[in-house]
Description:
It is a single chain. By secondary structure, the protein is of the alpha/beta class. It has a single domain (3-10, 17-71, 78-111), classed as Rhodanese-like domain (Oxidized Rhodanese, domain 1, 3-Layer(aba) Sandwich). The protein is built from five helices and four strands. It has helices at residues 3-12, 26-31, 46-57, 80-90, 104-107, and strands at residues 19-22, 38-39, 64-68, 94-97. A four-stranded parallel β-sheet has the order 2-1-3-4, covered by helices on one side. Helix 2 links the parallel strand 1 (19-22) and strand 2 (38-39). The longest helix has 12 residues, at 46-57.
Amino acid sequence: MQAAQFADELQHGKDGVPVVMYVGVRALYEGGHIPGAVYYGAGSTEQGLSELKHYAEVLPKSSNVVLYCGCCPMEKCPNLRPAFNAVKDIGFARLRVLILPNNFNADWVEKGYPVRKGSEP
């Protein structure tokens, strides 16, 4: 899903509040993330994937789940694909990826979409 579409969805509450999972590195999450996004670990590490799966396994399979990273250009991201596959394998019917082609700063922050800083969702 494109950033503008997702920002609109967050603002207008279409289809309820999605479960937003940030799957990059903690320092970038704390520097700025989508309000409400949770962080359980980087998708590029075994520990991060384990923590992410542990969190996701308790969610209803009908949850509206959106994953994003934005650490670098999407085509080179080491986190998104492994995290997507891990969460997909749990069986979510409504799993989507936020498309940030360049990075979170360029494709979200600089566009004026909402950002929260710190370690809390």
